[in-house]
Amino acid sequence: MTKPKTPREHFHREKERRANAAAPESELMAAARREYEALLAAQATKGKGGRPKKKKDAKVVADEDLIADDPEE
């Protein structure tokens, strides 16, 4: 094996070497990954989070009811 001449060449050689020598995922890691993804999917379906909706003031709601019930209109 010859010594790489440039840093870029070294990077590409190392990247290729690591890609070829990648160890297969163990069964325990695969099971943990599936469990984690299921947990994330369950939380996503809840629809929780975000900004809470504004609540009208009780006095404002009462005033709106009085205006709606006003017989003068």
How would you sum up this structure, described in words?
- There is one protein chain.
- Helix content is 63%, strand content 0%.
- It is mainly α and 73 residues long.
- The N and C termini lie far apart (95 Å).
- The relative contact order is 0.05.
- The mean pLDDT is 79.
In short:
This protein has 73 residues and is mostly helical. It is 63% helix and 0% strand. The radius of gyration is 31 Å and the shape is elongated.
Percent of residues in β-strands = under 5%
Cα separation of the termini: 95 Å
Outline: elongated
**Largest sheet data:** none
Radius of gyration in whole Å, from Cα? 31 Å
List keywords for this structure.
elongated; mainly alpha; 73 residues
SSE inventory with pairings:
Blueprint (H helix, E strand, L loop, with lengths): L6 H14 L6 H20 L11 H12 L4
